[in-house]
């Protein structure tokens, strides 16, 4: 068996590869088309998930009372509905957040307020000192 790969062997393999591409050319348009961004939550207060957490169908972390509907991961943005007192077994904070998907334990969600670009300059003098738009933390 031959151990070294000569220049002639390289040209043969490259020629076969380019010849194969002639039958099925590569579509470069798919690389340059922009990907669609996910829909931004429409709520006034947006919650940012701080770790992997389960969304439950009832405000409880007890598996006998509530089942996990889905799972949210780090930095997901969710709509902040209302705070509900639930049954968090073994935990000090008993608050849950109601979202369209279900209930999330409130200690796993950071509240943020949605600002549009430059709209906060007219409303809040403290926010006017911060340049740019985007999300700002409430606390």
Name some characteristics of this structure.
28% strand, 3-stranded antiparallel sheet, elongated, alpha+beta, SH3 type barrels, 139 residues
Set down the secondary structure blueprint.
Blueprint: H1 7-23, H2 29-32, E1 45-49, E2 53-56, E3 68-72, E4 77-79, E5 82-85, E6 95-98, E7 103-105, E8 109-115, H3 120-123, H4 125-128, E9 134-137
Antiparallel strand pairs: 1-4, 1-8, 2-3, 5-6, 6-7, 8-9
Question: Helix fraction?
Answer: 10-25%
Q: Count the E strands.
A: 9
CATH topology type of the domain at 45-128: SH3 type barrels
The overall pLDDT, averaged over residues, is 80
CATH class of the domain at 45-128: Mainly Beta
Distance between the termini: 69 Å
Could you please describe the fold and organization of this structure?
The protein is α+β, with helices and mostly antiparallel strands. The chain has a domain at 45-128: Roll (SH3 type barrels), CATH 2.30.30. Helix content is 21%, strand content 28%. It has helices at residues 7-23, 29-32, 120-123, 125-128, and strands spanning 45-49, 53-56, 68-72, 77-79, 82-85, 95-98, 103-105, 109-115, 134-137.
Quick recap of the structure?
With 139 residues, the protein is of the alpha+beta class.
């Amino acid at each position: 068996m031959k151990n070294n790969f000569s220049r002639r062997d390289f040209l043969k393999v490259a020629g076969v590869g380019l010849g194969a591409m002639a039958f099925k050319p590569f579509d470069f348009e798919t690389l340059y088309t922009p990907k669609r961004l996910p829909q931004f939550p429409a709520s006034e207060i947006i919650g940012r998930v701080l770790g992997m957490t389960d969304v439950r169908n009832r405000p409880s972390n007890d598996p006998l009372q509530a089942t996990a509907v889905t799972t949210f991961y780090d930095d997901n943005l969710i709509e902040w509905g209302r705070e509900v007192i639930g049954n968090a077994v073994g935990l000090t904070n008993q608050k849950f957040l109601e979202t369209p998907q279900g209930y999330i334990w409130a200690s796993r969600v950071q509240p943020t307020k949605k600002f549009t670009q430059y709209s906060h300059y007219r409303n809040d003098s403290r926010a006017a000192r911060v340049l740019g738009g985007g999300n700002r933390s409430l606390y």
